[in-house]
Write a structure and sequence with these properties.
The protein is of the alpha+beta class and 253 residues long. The chain has 6 helices and 14 strands. It has 2 domains: 6-83 and 223-251, Phosphorylase Kinase, domain 1, CATH 3.30.200; 85-206, ATP-grasp fold, B domain (D-amino Acid Aminotransferase, Chain A, domain 1). Strands 8, 9, 10, 11, 12 and 13 form a 6-stranded antiparallel β-sheet that branches. Helix 1 packs parallel to helix 6 (225-236). It holds the Pfam family SAICAR_synt.
Length: 253
């Protein structure tokens, strides 16, 4: 489709003006970042894989009646989405100890948590996306208590869906993060899952071997990120026919 006005560019995606009011075109880039963009690379084919995988997961949510911003995929790198008012929080759901949680609490990675734990962090790269308690969120007006209750219910439903899908293909859903946006109909708001759901925003481990199929491969120099994401797509049956394989990323100076 014809290129439209750029609305926003983030680390992994670009948002363009959509063809109709209330819509946007979301473009998936090949850029990979870690440690608040201190480590950066271009990994050919990553955007194609994430576009397909996010389409798969968002479509699954829609089929279960879980509201989200996805409308349809447009091509290999773009999808049409509803324009939403993003709540400035990252919603993190943890099933197994890993990453910053394990480091923060002095836990070994891989410990099954007694129940899914939901955390909130403020979306602010300059501050390192700090964890924030619910008291901060309501006090500063980022979301109301009712919003938080609804967001938690959304997150739990997404976790149930994602955990089941991944278990079915031999992958453990360790943790993931989502963003939530508001869609307004007059004075009435509806909260929906926004942004993306892909290996960029999840930790995914092979159930049998513990092999990582997520961005930790890039963070920790564990091999080819393209291979890891391709394996997830292959197992889910959504492998794009012309995704490009590139064993070595191109570092950005």
């Amino acid at each position: 489709m014809a290129r439209r006005k750029k609305i926003y560019e983030g680390k992994a995606k670009i948002l363009y003006e959509g063809p109709e009011p209330g819509t946007l075109v979301q473009y998936f880039k090949d850029d990979a970042t870690a440690f608040n963009a201190e480590k950066r690379a271009v990994i050919e084919g990553k955007g194609v894989l994430n576009n397909r995988l996010s389409e798969f997961f968002m479509t699954g949510l829609t089929q279960l009646g879980i509201p989200n911003h996805f409308i349809r995929r447009l091509n290999m790198r773009e999808q049409l989405i509803r324009q939403v008012e993003i709540i400035p929080l990252e919603v993190i759901v943890r099933n197994v100890s890993a990453g910053s949680m394990a480091k923060r609490l002095g836990m070994e990675e891989g410990v099954q948590l007694p129940r899914p734990i939901i955390e909130f962090s403020l979306k602010d790269d300059k501050l390192g996306d700090p964890l924030v308690p619910e008291e901060y969120i309501t006090a500063f007006g980022w979301a109301s208590q009712q919003d938080l209750d609804d967001i938690v219910q959304l997150a739990i439903r997404v976790n149930d869906f994602m955990s089941g899908v991944m278990y079915g293909v031999g992958i453990k859903l360790v943790d993931f993060k989502i963003e939530v946006g508001r869609i307004w109909d007059g004075d009435y708001q509806r909260l929906v899952v926004a942004d993306e759901i892909s290996p960029d925003s999840c930790r995914l481990w092979d159930i049998e071997t513990g092999a990582k199929f997520d961005k930790d491969v890039f963070r920790r120099d564990l091999g080819s990120l393209t291979d890891a994401y391709t394996e997830v797509a292959r197992r889910l049956g959504v492998m794009p026919s012309n995704a490009t394989h590139m064993p070595k990323p191109t570092l950005i100076n």
